[in-house]
Amino acid sequence: MPIYEFFCEACNTIFNFYSKRIDTTTSPLCPKCRNTILSRKVSPFAVTGKAKESDDMDELPFDESKMEQAMSMLAGEADKIREDDPRQAAQLMRKLTDMTGIGLGAGMEEALRRMEQGEDPEQIEAEMGDLIEAEEPFILPEKKAGKGGSGVRRPQTDPVLYDLHPEV
Asked: Phi and psi (nearest 5°) for 125?
């Protein structure tokens, strides 16, 4: 059952919707303000930042070429990671965050540090899972605005999982 993320510019909120089938075209109304059609987001693991459905890369808070390089590197190195070595996975995550400028929340940073020391990821998850789930795991770099402008305001994330195709 796929889960899709949508962004409401009016509310500055990210909403999650599940669907019983793959649906790459439906854009629901905002559950909060009820009059704004939401824009589809790409998964934060694939692309971090607010992207409009038109794929306007100018809206992303980082350089497009950096993300392409990072994703290419990730794809090439991910196949080489030994599942029994958490250090390798941690090193790959560090490379990705360094290349893209993405920061990590305090919980993710602590979990990554422990993996770098060779601790078992399942043990880390057991001890820190609630903390990591309660925070924003990734901190996006602020988009550079024009003269005197400020960075992108970080959106809220609605905790509810909505149905993309509610039975009416």
From this structure: -60, -45
Question: 123-155 burial by CB neighbour count: b if 16+ within 10 A, else e?
Answer: ebeeeeeeebeeebbbbbbebeeeeeeeebeeb
The residue behind tokens 């979990």 is: 111
**Using 50, 70 and 90 to split pLDDT, how confident is the model at 82?**
confident
Rounded CA-CA distance 69/79 in Å is 16
C-alpha atoms less than 13 angstroms from C-alpha of 66 in its C-beta half-sphere = 14
Place of tokens 């990072």: 70
Query: Between 100 and 21, whose confidence is greater?
Result: 21
pTM of the model as a whole: 0.45
Per-residue pLDDT for 31 more than 60?
Answer: yes
* Residue 60 in tokens: 């992303």
* Residue 104, C-beta contacts closer than 8 angstroms, at least 6 positions apart: 97, 112, 137, 138, 139
Helix residue ranges, H only, the chain: 64-78, 86-100, 106-116, 121-134
Domain range annotation of the chain:
1-60+146-168, 64-139
Can you tell me whether residue 155 is helix, strand or coil?
A: coil
Stretch 72-91: mean pLDDT, rounded?
77
Token code pair at residue 118: 């060779």
